[in-house]
Amino acid sequence: MKKKNMFVVLLVMLCLTGSVFAQGAVEQPKQEIRVLLANHPYGELLKTKIPEFEAQTGIKVNYESLQESQLTNKLTTEFATNSSTVDVFMTRPLQEGLMFIKNGWYKGLDKYDFSDYPANSVDIGRKAGVAYIVPLVTEWQVLYYRKDLLKKAGLSVPTNFVELEAAAKALTKDGVAGFASRGKGAAAVTQLSSYIYNYGGRYLDGGKAVFNSPEALEATRFYGRMLGSYGPQGVTSMSWENIMPVFQAGKAAMWTDASVFYGQIIDPTKTQIPAEDIGIAQLPKGPKGDSPFIVVSWGMAMSAKTKNQDAAQKFLDWATSKTLAKEGMLTNITMARDSAWADKDVRAIMNPGLVETQAHAAKNGYPFDRPFMSSVGQARDLIGEVIIESINTKGTSTKLPALAAEKAKAVDELLKTDGEYGL
Question: Which stretch of DSSP H or E encloses residue 316?
Fold first, then answer.
């Protein structure tokens, strides 16, 4: 009898213990990761899909969405002060890639399959055989234009800079700016780049600043004349996020910027212009070139300090997957994966202008839209001062050569400090 009672007691205790364990398992907090996204079309797409990832994996994603320069500044500050809790983040290979790699802030992606990407898009985020960045989005410079306004004015789509200026002059009337592009200092550097290339210039050559060369100065004057004479009011305070609503409201006839914005421009919930009246074409040729930039504008990376490596890897794999790359392409985001461009569903609905301009840029384009250097942010600020001087004077400033030479010297000093001068 005593043995039987003891057995009952043990059985009750085991049941109670099991219920405690079960209760503990239920109350275990979900695994969480912190993700920083850019205020960019692909970042916006990811935000809508994150609940699906959470449901599939049980991983809670705490994400923040930031404007591109704010994102870089936040990451740099957190990493530099060793205070970051970021696990995964969107990153600009040409903007912060060199600096982040040199400082050991990216985690090496030895488990990632890069076979579906062009080699040069991966190489931009690779050092000593280690890849640190998954390419997300490729961008190239294009001309967006109003088909209806050009037709009304009896104009064809401009194919060179002379035609571009003539069209801008003719279309600047009735409260409509004939031409728009980024004019806000550092933000304008990427868009000026193709103009410089098409005038035969460069930002850097042999690890030295050369944006004060006669060719680069001529391009900067042309860009300044175009925006100063035919651009929207307040253009020196405008980046793409400020210009897009102007174009969507019908207040700009032509706009040169990155190809990735086409989907947003024609979104009927955001624009007042019918999609059939909006065209996309190659950036017009310059006097000495036909080389728009084509770059990996955004990638995805893991923090070297992540404390949630498995969960972070799952999110990275998911956020850069073939499935989401296809979804991006279906919304006119120009993804980096080869399979996304080859997908039959994508090809069936893709705007022919995107296909044509991508093929042209891939063949003729230049793979940088800014100085490729660690201190690129500071360099862009310096070059931005030259751009603003040109815009404010409609390209006529007599100070421009001396100002460009001064800023080029300052960029050379940055290159020397970073050990990159002459390389």
Answer: helix 309-319
Q: CB of 252 within 8 A of CB of 232?
A: yes
3-state secondary structure 342-403: HCHHHHHHCCHHHHHHHHHHHHHCECCCCCCCCCHHHHHHHHHHHHHHHHHCCCCCCCHHHH
Using DSSP's 3-state secondary structure scheme, residue 273 falls into coil
Cβ-contact 230, 179 below 8 angstroms: yes
Q: What percent of the chain has pLDDT over 90?
A: 82
Give which of 105, 129, 107, 133 is closest to 121, Cα–Cα: 133
**pLDDT digits 0-9 by tens, 395-417:** 999 999 999 999 999 999 999 99
Q: Give, as one character, the DSSP assignment of residue 90.
A: E
Q: What is the pTM of this model?
A: 0.78
Count the neighbouring beta carbons within 10 Å of the beta carbon of residue 298.
28
Q: Is residue 391 within 8 Å of 224, Cβ to Cβ?
A: yes
Kind of pairing, strands 88-91 and 32-38?
Answer: parallel
Answer yes or no: is pLDDT of 12 > 60.
Answer: no
What DSSP string runs through 399-410? Answer: THHHHHHHHHHH
Measure the CA angle with vertex 18, ends 15 and 21; round to 5°.
155
**What's the Cα-to-Cα distance from 373 to each of 99, 176, 204, 207, 378, rounded to whole Å?**
8, 38, 9, 9, 10
Here the tokens at position 170 are 């003719």
Give yes or no for residue 324 having a pLDDT over 70: yes
Report d(CA 195, CA 211) in Å as an integer.
Answer: 12
Alpha-carbon span 387 to 312, nearest angstrom: 40
DSSP structure string for 103-119: TT-BPP-TT---TTS-H
